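Re-run with default settings, no changes from the original entry. Doing this only to confirm the output is reproducible before filing.
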Amino acid sequence: MAEHAIGNNLRRLRFDHDEMTQEALAKAAGVTRQTIISLEAGRYAPSLELAMRLALVFRRPVDDLFYWRSPPG
């Protein structure tokens, strides 16, 4: 399956956040560990709601977590 146009810094942020596990992040965001795995691998682009919940977990703006791999258009 192709990677999405949206990249992320979730893995780095987890490690910068006391080496948070995928399971702990999933629980804090209200999703499954499989969702976090798919996000980190670039196989899944989050909904706006999920992106905002993840940003709240890390207390960072959404664009610190997610970025365009290549701009649309």
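The first helix runs from residue 10 to 16. The radius of gyration is 12 Å.
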